[in-house]
Amino acid sequence: MTSAVARPGPEVRQYLLVTGNYWAFTLTDGALRMLVVLHFHSLGYSPLQIAALFLFYEIFGVITNLFGGYLGARLGLNRTMNIGLALQVGALLMLTVPAAMLSVPWVMAAQALSGVAKDLNKMSAKSSIKLLVPDTAQGALYQWVAILTGSKNALKGVGFFLGGALLALMGFTGAVLAMAGVLALIWVGSLILLRKDLGKAKVRPKFRDLLSRSRAINVLSGARLFLFGARDVWFVVALPVYLSTVFGWDFWQVGGFLAAWIIGYGMVQSAAPAITGKAQGRVPDGRSALVWALTLAGLPAAIAVGLQASLDPQWVLLGGLMLFGALFAVNSSLHSYLIVSWARSDGVSLDVGFYYMSNALGRLLGTLLSGWIYQIQGLEACLWMSTLFLLATAAISVRLPRPPSASHAPEST
């Protein structure tokens, strides 16, 4: 770790506050996702209808990442963080209306607010780390990004379990209301403690700066789109519904298993620097991203073949899912490091926002396909689509910069 971390200064303390807000938000985001999937499945909604509930969540995530980076550079990351917290409280309160009012359009609107809130928080937290670690300390930067990303996903896993537990203990409305109250208190604290100029660009960005002019970031964004589409095409809707209907699992079992998976996934993300050779002084470049994408690509197909061969579905699916989570975690952590490393220092949120716009677009595509493909063809078809997406990720990754020097200063076009 850097000396700045050993002796926390104002910038470090502000970053830690942003990270703490992000963690708290992540708990509610994971819990809300599980609440919506399980509650509306129990009401008789089809997989495609459940996927539609998240349509605006993902669409507005795409828009937010594009414009949120611009707002972060102009207004400061504290403001984008606080706006995100306030919108999430509002989204949760929207879902506390009487059950008769919980129509698909109403829930989609609440999810739209939640999608804006989530990506404002993610962009703020990921952008802040660039302000802490100097460009010359790439190994430390990789470690910090891995810890932030891994801890966030571990907490999201806890949120999955929390959602299933709250649904069983308090019911849908009570669970959502409790989360809104806790998050409102955190938002008030954030308004008081976060400094106003965190992450504000020295030169005011213009709208033309919304689109990245870096070839490396554009290619990485394309790879990220298909990487996250490959995960969500079978994980978001198809898997929870499959576990509930085919395996006969209840809310506690589905929520608990997915929580454990996300927690383990986050732990592997935090350990990614050690897995990929940081101890030997190596930091990732485009070649690393390509190799790890290819390593992951065949796994969903292998799981699909195992299910179609009438092998024990629990061993095949659950064992395959664990291995997929570990390999996907390394891929995700590599990408998260590369975007922060390659982003410009002044106005970092612009590059990070553009990149996570592609991430959100991949989730949107994966979520829609997860419900649609599962409804018409089943889980195996979702897994084959995941394989195609991962092959696309690898094909795009061929064009990523490979020399170590390119990872520090990619050329702009």
Can you give a write-up of this model?
The protein has 413 residues and is mainly α. The chain has one domain (7-200, 208-407): MFS general substrate transporter like domains (Growth Hormone, Chain: A), CATH 1.20.1250.20. 77% of the residues lie in helices and 0% in strands. The chain has 15 helices and no strands. The chain has helices spanning 3-6, 10-42, 47-53, 55-75, 77-94, 104-128, 138-193, 215-235, 238-245, 251-275, 286-297, 299-308, 313-342, 348-377, 379-397. Helix 2 (10-42) packs across helix 7 (138-193) and helix 8 (215-235) packs parallel to helix 14 (348-377). The two termini are 34 Å apart. Residues 1-7 and 404-413 have low confidence and may be disordered.
Describe how the helices and strands are arranged.
Blueprint: H1 3-6, H2 10-42, H3 47-53, H4 55-75, H5 77-94, H6 104-128, H7 138-193, H8 215-235, H9 238-245, H10 251-275, H11 286-297, H12 299-308, H13 313-342, H14 348-377, H15 379-397
Helix pairs in contact: 2-5, 2-6, 2-7, 3-14, 4-5, 4-6, 4-14, 5-6, 5-7, 6-14, 7-10, 7-13, 8-13, 8-14, 8-15, 10-13, 11-13, 11-15, 12-13, 12-15, 14-15
